[in-house]
Amino acid sequence: YIVQELSKNVDGNMRGSCYMAIRRNGKIEQPLVWDFDLAFGNADHITWEQGASSTGWDGWYIKTCSPWFDRFFEDPQFVSELKDRWNELKPQLDKLPNFIKERALMLDDAQTRNFSTKESNGAGWVINKVDWNTSRVSGSYKAEINYLVTFVEKRIGWLDSNINKLN
User: Fold this and answer.
1) Contact 62, 9 (CB under 8 A)
2) Residue 6 buriedness (CB in 10 A; 0-12 / 13-18 / 19+)
3) pLDDT per position as a tens digit, 27-60
């Protein structure tokens, strides 16, 4: 749940790209997390009837637009374990913005090739193109990284305040 809510992953709401497994002990798990193209505010055209918006770093998303999680939040044990797990992970999550910056720097040469024209032996990808699943573009690799870092920093802060207020 935490990774899906942190990222406001549209595909993480149990209506689409989610896989579950039942362990031998009977617990249901989501062993894989994937499909984050519509995450981190990157799908600004999606709002659920419950009022959850996939944009912006504030507000609940997965909690309010998934019938599975809606039910889980009625269970005091789930809420208690979520708070405990969040507070256990929070120091590591606080390192995520720097991790993103470090990886972006490590990938700088590759992104240059990726967004260079085919005539200059690049892949020819366009970084500032609006397509079917997003109308938010930043215009450059550096601007996209800055957007992601800011989103993650603010989202962690919002979740920290609000997860710990849950009853």
Assistant:
1) yes
2) buried
3) 888 777 878 888 898 876 666 656 677 788 999 9
**Sole residue written with tokens 């009977």:** 26
Q: What residue segments make up the domains of the chain, in order of their start? A: 2-163
Is 44 within 8 Å of 55 (Cβ atoms)?
yes
pLDDT tens-digit map of 76-91: 999 999 999 999 999 9
* Token pair belonging to 12: 């993480």
Q: Are 136 and 95 in contact (CB under 8 A)?
A: no
Q: Which DSSP string do the residues of 17-77 spell out, in sequence order? A: S---EE-TTS-EE-------TT-TT--TT-B-TTS-BSSSSSS-SHHHH-HHHHHHTT-HH
Tokens coding 35: 């499909």
DSSP alpha helix (H) spans, 73-128: 76-93, 96-106, 108-114
